[in-house]
Queue: 2 jobs
Job 1
Amino acid sequence: MKLVVPISTYSLDSALSMQFARSAFFAILDGTLPVLLANPYANNPLHAGRKVFNMLVNEMGVSTLAAYELGLKIQQMALKNKVQIIVLDAKIRNLQDVVYYRNRNK
Amino acid sequence: MARPRQISKIQSPPRVKGFMPLGHYTQEPERIVMLHLEEYEAIRLLDYEHLSQEEASGFMQVSRPTLTRIYERARFKIASALTEGRQVIIEGGTAIFEGRWFACLACRSKFNDPVGKGAECCPLCGSNQYERVKG
Ligand SMILES: [Zn+2]
């Protein structure tokens, strides 16, 4: 299961971003180490959600979106495409916490 | 970092993305009022559907004090838009809608069941200790 989480800096210690579609970076968790990538649509004035969703789900094969907040547009696209959503609890503060919980799930 | 807020459930997305005033008004982006989805929903349930605070908090799956805070924020934003002639954009916030949701008792995250087969375990931490979020 490929999971993506929005992060605020390009670093394995990054805090999680409060936004999803306009987050500066993402971390994709599939194997042991997260893969980090910059969001090319972070500053797009229009349709950032649709473009980010297409990149992550259709091009990169992500099956689970995890974030504190997800726009309703993204939630609708996720439902339509049977992509799972995780709304993270506030006690999960950074990428390391996500990796920690994710590793318990193995 | 801002503290993530409690998520609330809304029944459906709003019909429009926002409102623009007539006449002279400022178009400066920093003057735009961002009405979050849970704030829109609180106004809709309390002022349009005339639900009680108890009923509305049940629909939105938040405590009554949380609903009161959301509602007060929404009222102030709308009042400032009307008084100062500011645009209103409805987006963002901490709302989820549609589908079956579950709350993990281990990592406390909430997750949905997009294929409708029922949840086996939390997709984040793998715990099978979770409960259904009513709604
Ligand atoms: Zn969990």
Note: Residues 3-104 of chain A form a domain with the Nucleotidyltransferase; domain 5 fold (CATH 3.30.420.130).
Job 2
Amino acid sequence: MPEKSAEALADEFARRRTPDIDPPGRPAGTLYRGHEGMWSWVLHRVTGVAIFFFLLVHVLDTALVRVSPEAYNAVIGTYQTPIMGLGEVALVAAIVFHALNGLRIILVDFWAGGTRHHKLMFWTVIVLWALLMLGFTPRHLMNVFSH
Amino acid sequence: MADHVAEAPVPTIESFTVTLIIRRFDPEVDEEPRWVDYDVEMYATDRILDALHKIKWEVDGSLTFRRSCAHGICGSDAMRINGRNRLACKTLIKDLDISQPIYVEAIKGLPLEKDLVVDMEPFFESYRQIQPFLQASSKPEKERIQSVAERERFDDTTKCILCAACTSSCPVFWTDGQYFGPAAIVNAHRFIFDSRDEAANVRLDILNDKEGVWRCRTTFNCTEACPRGIQVTQAIAEVKQAMIRGKV
Ligand code: HEM
Ligand code: SF4
Ligand code: FES
């Protein structure tokens, strides 16, 4: 076989390299496609962290009462605006999901049938959550918007 | 001859053009992995492993992946197929939607070495740490007797082939490579609940670590990924419960 120059070899390698295509927008890899278990955990963490930040702010604004009752009243007064009213719906939605799903996680860990029925329990959590929110949201919004 | 039998036409088996989009990475050339697509002619009964072979043998010999047995026993070829961890040798073309391209990439959470090959060392290090061997002080004349019920207790977790599909499907493991991971816990379970073994408490101690079983967030990705059908999350829950009770 005739010897090939280094440049010729490099050239050949470059041609042999398969061309790139448009990556599917995810150089880091595709999103893992988990099922109920994975998404319930994502929601649980997102709601848990959201509730944590709310509580943090809430402890601070409540502590304002020690600064002065006027400051406290001014800040707490903003909770009565419609925007805050909608925020409260989101907060209650997060807490209700987190609490119900938290009970589900406890059952998965400690009830013998837990791992077998985790999907059914997840959908039960979703249905209970929807029922509770259907009961709460209209009453709450009526309160918020009638003031 | 009168009784000459007309040759029956050989039925042709239908084949399909399947597009595979493979996440490739050559550490000597690429700074980042890149997606490359290949069209291959496949039969419904072919597997993803056959498609990879076809590409490697006929299109681009540099495509790199591990496989050995090609029959779901050695655990070499776990990879992410359409976003889920599967063995390439057990994933049939007919079970995938081939009207869409099929995405194939390396398993997640372990260092990427080349194309579909990752460094399995951290995975095996966790496995070694849980002492995956029988520990018994007695020296019986013949075999160690075990009842059917006692054997049944850990039957499920004896099936593991150490493919890492479970560990590399775990969101906790992706972000915390120190976590022992489901496979190590499955293999600890296999000895913890073996009536012949005497080191259950040693293993429970090891897994009571902050990087042990309590990291498990029960996402069930491991159970859904396991090519051996092991109830991985169930096994982890049993280890958690044994830890709380302080006995097996
Ligand atoms: C209403 C009653 C509550 C129940 C029944 C509950 C239940 C639980 C359970 C069982 C877990 C463990 C999750 C797991 O193992 O994957 C958990 C995690 C968590 N909770 Fe709660 N919780 C409640 C309230 C709260 C509150 C008020 C906050 C915020 C301050 C909160 C924030 C969190 C966070 C950040 C996590 C971590 C999520 C994770 O690691 O994925 N939870 N909760
Ligand atoms: S438990 Fe299943 S998924 Fe995990 S390493 Fe063993 S065989 Fe593979
Ligand atoms: S090649 Fe051995 S398990 Fe797939």
Note: Chain A has a mean pLDDT of 88.
